[in-house]
Amino acid sequence: MSDPVDPIGIVGAGRVAQTLGRLLSENGRPVVAIPALSEQATSSAP
Asked: Is the Cβ–Cβ distance between 24 and 8 less than 8 Å?
C-alpha cells in the first residue's frame, strides 16, 4: 500500500518557486498554491 502524498504550498512566485513547483508537479507531487504579494507576480507563474 502506498503512503498518501500531502499537498505542497510554496511561498513566493519568483523563479526559484516557479521552478520548484514545476519540478514537484512533474514528479507527481500536488502543488496547491504559489502565493505572492503582487498580482503581477502570480500572473506570470505557470
From this structure: yes
Per DSSP, the residues of 14-37 read: SHHHHHHHHHHHHTTPPEEE---S
Burial of 8 (0-12, 13-18, 19+ CB in 10 A): middle
Nearest 5°: the CA angle 13, 6, 27 is 65
pLDDT tens string, the chain, 46 residues long: the values are 566 788 888 888 788 888 998 999 999 999 887 677 776 665 665 5
